[in-house]
Amino acid sequence: MHEPDYPITDIHVHIQPWEHLHPGAREVMSHGRPDYDELSAMMHDPGAVLGQMDAAGIDRIGMINYVAPRLMGFTDEVNGWIAGVAKADPRRLLPFGGLDPRDAAVIKDPRGAVDRLVDLGIRGFKVHPPHQELRVNAYRPGATEEALPALEGIYARLQEVGMPMMIHTGTSVFPGARSRYGDPMDCDDVGIDFPELTMILAHCGRPMWAPGAIFVARRFPNAYIDLSSIPPKRLLHYIPALEKLAPRCLWGTDWPGPGAPTMDHNLRQFLDLDLSSAAYKAILHDNAARLFPDRG
Q1: SS3 of the chain
Q2: What mean pLDDT is predicted for residues 213-219?
Q3: Which candidate among 14, 124, 182, 271 keeps its CA 20 to 30 Å from the CA of 169?
Q4: d(Cα 65, Cα 34) in Å, to the nearest integer?
Q5: Mean per-residue pLDDT for 16-38?
């Protein structure tokens, strides 16, 4: 087993206000989790989150949030909420937020909406196409069934301010989720049109679109893959060239999702893979340190 002697970042952890979830989404989230109520309460206790991190040997986490009011119940309130959680330890707790490109205020001033996230202290932007019921390239005229021109202004401003954008790629089992919008090849348009925008393709398009996600990561210098929600024992099946792709991969668990019962469960399995020390260090520390440098 590889033994890291450097701080580890888990870039994909769901610290969210679960009381905002619609009943159907809450049922999926709580299925098979006898500790659901405990976890739901922990979301409001940054000290408990930091304690979980310490117990698991995790230095920093990306706290994933996004705006999906119709399907999930998460509104723009999540941005201020997660920014507040991060204040408990701004170095270790990296808040991700989002915007609804159908919201009237965002349509009116998408760049200003991004600036408000920056002012809150949001470190990363999350787009969840299956849960937001949109395609990530819906800003392109005629490219999708629904035109969402506000996305162009959002992406342009994210590029200008240097905020990385995480994009859910792959399927989702939540009620009403449009899994076909999780095809990572839609990110190809974003990479062409916004070449300086950092894209993080969450979940590497699992389970059926990993080759597309890998193609995008190889094609664009600012595109990365996060390894969350992929069983570590299956990682080399989905990404056979993981050793070579290590400079473009970020460690993530999707905790407390069903495939990650504890913050370090998947990490321990990942450390048993046959990867070089350099690859492990890139995935577990270096890439995240470059994209999300410490701020004190």
Answers
A1: CCCCCCCCEEEEECCCCHHHCCHHHHHHHHCCCCCHHHHHHHCCCHHHHHHHHHHHCCCEEEECCCCECCCCCECCHHHHHHHHHHCCCCCCEEEEECCCCCCHHHHHCHHHHHHHHHHHCCCEEEECHHHHCCCCCCCCCCCCCCCCCHHHHHHHHHHHHCCCEEEECCCCCCCCCCHHHHCHHHHHHHHHHCCCCCEEEEHHHCCCCHHHHHHHHHHCCCEEEECCCCCHHHHHHHCCCHHHHHHHEECCCCECCCCCCCCCHHHHHHCCCCCCHHHHHHHHHHHHHHHCCCCC
A2: 98
A3: 271
A4: 23
A5: 92
* Contact of 203 with 183, CB cutoff 8 Å: no
What six digits make up the tokens of 252?
Answer: 């993530």
- CA–CA distance from 259 to each of 12, 160, 252, 288, 291 (Å)? 13, 36, 12, 22, 26
Per-residue pLDDT reduced to its tens digit, 254-270: 999 878 888 999 999 99
Question: What tokens does 173 get?
Answer: 């089992």
Determine the Cα–Cα distance for residues 89 and 50; give it in Å rounded to an integer.
Answer: 9
Residues whose CB is less than 8 angstroms from the CB of residue 88 and which lie 6 or more positions away in sequence, other chains included: 46, 47, 49, 50
Q: State both tokens at 103.
A: 């919201």
Between CA 285 and CA 169 the distance in angstroms is: 22
pTM: 0.97
Q: Please check whether residue 53 is in contact with residue 61, taking contact to mean a CB–CB distance below 8 angstroms.
A: yes
